[in-house]
């Protein structure tokens, strides 16, 4: 079964405040991740293949 990204369970970062500048992440069916702007939930989402999200987060942290 393919679940559209928009229908995935989205989680807001625990570091997000109430200022509206939040990022949400969803776990995709085959282990990938998707990221979107919480202010525009119907807008575009950036999808990552499994493993690529960890590399992205590692690069951001560095």
Q: What's the arrangement of secondary structure elements?
A:
Elements: E1 10-12, E2 23-27, E3 33-37, E4 45-48, H1 52-61
Antiparallel strand pairs: 1-2, 2-3, 3-4
Pfam families: DUF397
Protein name: DUF397 domain-containing protein
Domain DUF397: 9-60
Structure description:
- This protein has a domain at 22-62.
- It is built from one helix and four strands; from the N terminus they run ββββα.
- It has one helix at residues 52-61; strands at residues 10-12, 23-27, 33-37, 45-48.
- It has a four-stranded antiparallel beta sheet, with no helix packed on it.
The Cα radius of gyration reads 12 Å
Distance between the termini: 36 Å
Spatial order of strands in the largest sheet: 1-2-3-4
Number of strands: 4
Give the number of helices.
Answer: 1
The global form is globular
The helix/strand class is alpha+beta
Low-confidence stretches: none
Share of helix among residues?
10-25%
Order of helices and strands: EEEEH
Q: How is the biggest beta sheet arranged? A: 4 strands, antiparallel
The share of residues in extended strands comes to 25-35%
- The average pLDDT is 84
Q: Assembly type of the shown chains?
A: single chain
